[in-house]
Each structure stands twice: as structure tokens, then as C-alpha cells.
Specification:
- β3 and β4 form a beta hairpin.
- The model has no long low-confidence stretch (mean pLDDT about 95).
- The chain is α+β, with helices and mostly antiparallel strands.
- The longest helix has 16 residues.
- It has a single domain, classed as Alpha-Beta Plaits.
- About 25% of the residues lie in helices and about 35% in strands.
- Strands 1-5-3-10-7-9-8-6 form an eight-stranded antiparallel β-barrel.
């Protein structure tokens, strides 16, 4: 599993209705994209628990071939044509769990980044993060929870989809506009090694 996200930060006076319309008309195009576990079409608005207006889709890829096919294909080129070429962040998957609200439509996503401190033993830090992912996934209202790592910057990424609009969770909050999940059932459960 691979996690991927790009963030398009928009002007403070940007009409976020444009993003809503974009997702409403184009979001379904990845509903059957080969290799895609899930794509959460995420947005946050300045003044609503966010300092910025931002469109920030988040992906969990079942296979790197799907990610590559998307990045070098017409889907991502549409983003580049409309907004310029964003930095694409990506992380290696460590864990994935379905939650008790797995069948619900997610309304909110929470992303939390965590630096891995020096000189903490990596195996112990990762095992604790995997346990935290399992714990999160058991909370009422959780659709799914994922854990990934960026070993270049030694950063953990916790990502959770919630059926609630205002879950009690720490991190950056996003509104989920649409969820494409063609291979979500194929994402490996639990620890990824």
C-alpha cells in the first residue's frame, strides 16, 4: 500500500464552490480506477477549522502501478492544467484497518503527521504507531484508518476517515466531498510487513 496526497492552497477569497462543482462533476471518474484502493476528495475552507482554502485529495494505492498510471495519465494532467503542478507527497504504507462505520459514507478526514524523534528505536516507534492505528480504527464513527511513513523525513502519517462531521480527533481536518474506493476491499489489513 502507498499513500499519496497533494495540496492545492487557494486564495483566501477563492470561491470554494468551484471545487465542490469540480468534484461533483468529475469525482466519479476514478470510481473504478485500477490499482486505486481509495481516493478521498478532500477540501478545507479558511475560517472553518482551517487557516487556508485548500483542495487536498488523499489516496491509498493498492499497487504502485496504479499510482504511476494516474500521475502520468490524463487524470493528474487535468489538475496540472487547472492549478499548476503541485508537490505530490507520498508515503509507504504501514497499516490499514476498517472501522465500525466501514459501510458509512465518510464526511470528515483527519490527517496527523508525527515526526519520529531521534534517537528513538524505529521498530518500537512503528509498532506503537501500528497499535495506535488499530485503536483508532475501533472508535465509534471510524470508516477506516491508515498509517504510513516517509523515511526521507522520518515522519509518520495517520489518516482516518469518519462518518461524523466533527469527530474528536487531533490533526488537520478536511471535509470529504466524495470517496472513490474501487479496490478498498483489496487493501491489505493490519500491519504491512
Amino acid at each position: 500500500m502507498h499513500a499519496m496526497q497533494y495540496e492545492i492552497t487557494l486564495p483566501a477569497d477563492y470561491d470554494m464552490g468551484v471545487i465542490r462543482k469540480r468534484v461533483a462533476t468529475k469525482g466519479h471518474l476514478l470510481d473504478d480506477f485500477s490499482g486505486l484502493g481509495l481516493k478521498a476528495y478532500l477540501m478545507r475552507e479558511r475560517g472553518h477549522d482551517s487557516p487556508v482554502n485548500q483542495y487536498a485529495p488523499f489516496y491509498l494505492w493498492a499497487a504502485p502501478e496504479g499510482m504511476n498510471r494516474f500521475l502520468w495519465g490524463p487524470g493528474f494532467q487535468g489538475i496540472v492544467d487547472d492549478f499548476g503542478r503541485p508537490v505530490v507527497q507520498h508515503w509507504t504504507g504501514l497499516a490499514y484497518e476498517e472501522g465500525p462505520a466501514a459501510a458509512a459514507t465518510p464526511r470528515t478526514a483527519v490527517r496527523r503527521r508525527q515526526r519520529i524523534p531521534q534517537p528513538a528505536p524505529l521498530a518500537a516507534v512503528i509498532e506503537e504507531a501500528v497499535r495506535e492505528t488499530r485503536r483508532l480504527a475501533r472508535l465509534d464513527g471510524v470508516v477506516c484508518a491508515a498509517l504510513a511513513v516517509d523515511p526521507r523525513h522520518w515522519e509518520l502519517l495517520h489518516f482516518t476517515l469518519w462518518e461524523y462531521e466533527t469527530p474528536e480527533a487531533t490533526g488537520d481536518r478536511y471535509e470529504v466531498l466524495h470517496l472513490s474506493a474501487p479496490r478498498r476491499d483489496g487493501l491489505p489489513r493490519g500491519r504491512q510487513w
